[in-house]
Amino acid sequence: xxxxxxxxxxxxxxxxxxxxxxxxxxxxxxxxxGWGIAAILNPIALNGKPSVASSDxxxxxxxxxxLQRVMGLFVSEFRTLLGAPSFTHxxxxxxxxxxxxxxxxxxxxxxxxxxxxxxxxxxxMRDRFTKLMQTSIETLQSTVELVEALPELxxxxxxxxxxxxxxxxxxxxxxNSNREQECVDASDRxxxxxxxxxxxxxxxxxxxxxxxxxxxxxxQEQMLGVYAPLLAPLILPFLLGLIRELKRFKAKRAxxxxxxx
Length: 261
Fold this sequence. Notes:
GPI transamidase component PIG-S, mainly alpha, PtdIno-glycan_biosynth_class_S, membrane, GPI-anchor biosynthesis, 2 domains, 5 strands, transmembrane helix, 3-stranded mixed sheet
């Protein structure tokens, strides 16, 4: 979102809490969690000062520079939402790992098409793949530990099918060429990411199955302890009524036989 203040308030800045009295704390954008960022435009840079006569070329230059600044903020926020690596973070990492005392400047080739390069997409895919694999394996281990800790826990066939399918996906990702099974090529990152996502979804669906969750928090013993005091008083009247009806039925049948004789 871009905000265009009135010319009499331009240029409009936001003072941060850490630098209230210094120019270093002036900001022209702020983040809205869950929505994105709000950038403040400078109407003077877009249209020029009313009191100063500027040529059309100067106005066009300042306008282009202002639009590039705002769009750069939007692209940076978009990169952050995608999880693209930060240039500042990589520069600090390069400075820390460099043995030379002189600063090693990293040069980044910009992507003029969409603001993100192919190698950055590879980094995002690799990080996402690693997290999905870790989550899938940890969820599988938790499922096994849960079933072993509660032997009385009944596992439905659909849960078993999901676990077996997830294990098949993980084996296809982690297998080597010596084993006789279908393996995914390590260079095919898209297929690896798709299978890792499927394995993660299957393991989550198996672990958080509503039947297992219900038995985990409400076992059969607890259900019996809760409903037994409510149902036990009804058993005796039911049995007495059943016995009374059986006696009445036998007496009625005996009377019918006597009548026929």
